[in-house]
Hints:
The structure holds two protein chains of two kinds.
Chain A: E1 4-6, H1 7-17, E2 22-26, H2 32-39, E3 45-48, H3 52-66, E4 70-74, H4 78-82, H5 84-92, E5 97-103, H6 119-123, E6 129-132, H7 136-151, E7 157-163, H8 164-168, E8 170-172, H9 192-204, E9 208-212, H10 214-218, H11 221-234, E10 238-240, E11 255-258, H12 265-273, E12 276-280, H13 286-289, E13 300-305, E14 319-322, H14 325-338, H15 345-360, H16 375-386, E15 391-395, H17 399-407, E16 416-417, H18 428-438, E17 443-449, H19 450-455, H20 459-465, E18 471-476, H21 481-490, H22 506-513, E19 516-520, H23 526-535, E20 540-545, H24 578-581
Parallel strand pairs in A: 2-3, 2-4, 4-5, 5-7, 6-7, 9-10, 9-12, 10-11, 12-13, 13-14, 15-16, 15-17, 17-18, 18-20, 19-20
Antiparallel strand pairs in A: 1-8
Chain B: E1 27-36, H1 41-51, E2 58-65, E3 70-79, H2 81-93, E4 97-102, E5 109-120, H3 124-135, E6 139-143, E7 147-154, H4 156-166, E8 171-183
Bound molecules: thiamine diphosphate (TPP) and magnesium ion.
Thiamine diphosphate binds near residues 452 and 483 of chain A.
Amino acid sequence: MTRQMTGAKMVVQALKDQGVDVVFGYPGGAVLPIYDEIFLQNDIRHVLVRHEQGAVHAAEGYARSTGKPGVVLVTSGPGATNAVTGLTDALLDSIPVVVLTGQVPTFMIGTDGFQEADTVGITRPCTKHNWLVKDTDALGDIIHQAFHVATTGRPGPVLIDIPKDVQFATGTYTPRTKARTARYKPRLKGDTAAITALVERMESAERPIFYTGGGVINSGPQASQLLRELVGATGFPITSTLMGLGAYPASGREWIGMLGMHGLYEANMAMHDCDLMIAIGARFDDRITGRVDAFSPGSFKAHVDIDPSSINKVIHVDIPITGDVAHVLEDLLRIWKARGRKVNKEALAHWWEQIEKWRAVDCLAYRASDSTIKPQHAIQRLEALSKGLDRYITTEVGQHQMWAAQFMGFEEPNRLMTSGGLGTMGYGLPASVGVQMAHPEATVINVAGEASFQMNMQEMATAVQFRLPIKQFILNNERLGMVRQWQDLLHGGRYSQSWSESLPDFVKLAEAFGCKGRAVSDPAELDEAIREMLDHDGPFILDVLVERHENCYPMIPSGAPHNEMLMGDDSTEGAIGSSGATLV
Amino acid sequence: MSALRLKKGTSSKSAYNLRDPHAEGLESHTLAVIVDNEAGVLARVIGLFSGRGYNIDSLTVAEIDHLGHQSRITIVTTGTPAVIEQIKAQLGRIVPVHEVHDLTVEGRAVERELALLKVAGTGEKRVEALRLADIFRANVVDSTLESFTFEITGTPEKIDAFAELMRPLGLSEIARTGVAALPRSDMSTDG
Lengths: 584, 191
Ligand SMILES: Cc1ncc(C[n+]2csc(CCOP(=O)(O)OP(=O)(O)O)c2C)c(N)n1
Ligand SMILES: [Mg+2]
């Protein structure tokens, strides 16, 4: 095979060599040569989104549900700037995404040319790394390096900016095996002495807890498998962040639910009162810790993370272990077994008794109704009716997202796609497009709010064009519910701009896009409506009109310690102090 | 505009400060960062400091290995011990960063800075400036009948002291390079 080719051809060749089967993108002047090469081949499918932000979220959905990097192709200037939100989202949630952008020709860079933007400058802080390619000979090498960087160590988004003259020019292609990837090599194996020190603590701990996060899922299926084995063998309780749901099954014996701001009472209380905290692939985000100086004050803390900068960033830990979760868990299990599989059985039994008492509080309880659909009930019914299916869930951002996390059970990793770190409204619909592309036979459901849905609803057209039978399950409270809830807590119930006015008729909207829709407001019809949505062979929008002023509980009010949660019936007045009010 | 807008007694610290440099528990550390000499690498390092609110007291950069495409960035920064650890970890995450050395904890380092100072004056003051320059081993690199330009090399503190003395003698402009630093060899003598 000749290695001489144009830059545009190199792009397609490199993507094929990386095993890419789908690209999410949108054409424009600065990427026309690459689009021409896409036209001339059949190995890579191109999904034409309706907005570049949608392309990146779709790629994130694809990546998160497969473990493979998602690929995006967009034009210069506005194409690139539209991708910025998606890049930032992928950076905060550590999702491997490779974004290719067109750029004005090298000789025009710096002249404020048509559709010129300083793309590498704009995206430097929102990518793991980025490149401006100035020479066609370097292009192949850079693309292969980009895939390597995106997927190695802590995953993240990368961007390659390719000027149009570099696409047209002919150069020498560097195949994948010859690319200079060896230079970026994060450490995978954890320090054995530190792991042994942790095992010693595990043997005597009276109130241990596993606190796991998205890092377990990013480490790959092996990591989830090892985690299950470790948790099952030790009998320690396990909680997880939003990003880590599914790594350990929700039906598992040791599962005590999600923790954090809207996490379960038993999970937060156990975190507060534990004497040994084993953090694995989680980063002590402020949604988890509540007030930092009151976070789990009496515990000895170990932290496993592949990114050394995550360790001791927010919370000081006693045993830092830098390494890949799967590698560390393997060593941890081996050492624990070799030392005789010891745990403090008696103390553990007491610990579980205490946890059961917290569980008995039934923190997710809500007042049922026969006249209006309660949002929690809607999610519970969705969960019950879709449970047995090969199911992937995406969400938008808001109350519905938290209810989905609270009331749905995730049995496997890579089954929940949600915007955790950035909290991007408009993520879920395009993400569901990406997930469905990767899993054509699966049931893909986006649990949405009516406001978030409108942020990227143009992607319904993408779903219709590519015959992607995504299900949009809209919890329609006609409110920016989460904003309204905070205004309840913080601003005396003055609902400034948090009402969804002039909403579209979502059923007609579905029809306008060429798919099917249905609205449901009577609790008695809910099950039947959900069944119709699930059974329908095509994209579907189910507009579930729910109780408008329901608040999401439990809640750690901002600025409060994580063991002081608001429960459903508590008064919310004055729950947030003046120092908490400045927090987000 | 004169480069001498510094208040009397202000030291060379703070090329770029986002956190209160007078807060309790702050330490000054000199970091040596070995990077691939590629486009944008300096912007990445500076963007990290501005984006995360770290201080830069001094920053120098130059290629040190042409064939290996490597540059050395020397950064003097202040922060609490926890922040200094974060800075090092965050620098280490940058893909083209190969090594991060904390010269302040890795043992004593040799730190040098070069400065050019223009001092204008006549008569007694001019003689006094020359005499002090001699004591500080500063060289005259340019002179007119009304002014001298001195070149001085030394620790930042030495340069601070020299500048302070030149001030009443007619110091009109100063340019400083920022700190270059290397760890001392085990057996070396102070020099
Ligand atoms: C892009 C973006 N803009 C603003 C916000 C702030 N925000 C968080 S939740 C929310 C309301 C979401 O409303 P909806 O999608 O209807 O969900 P609900 O809370 O009502 O379930 C808003 C505006 C955000 N997270 N993302
Ligand atoms: Mg809403």
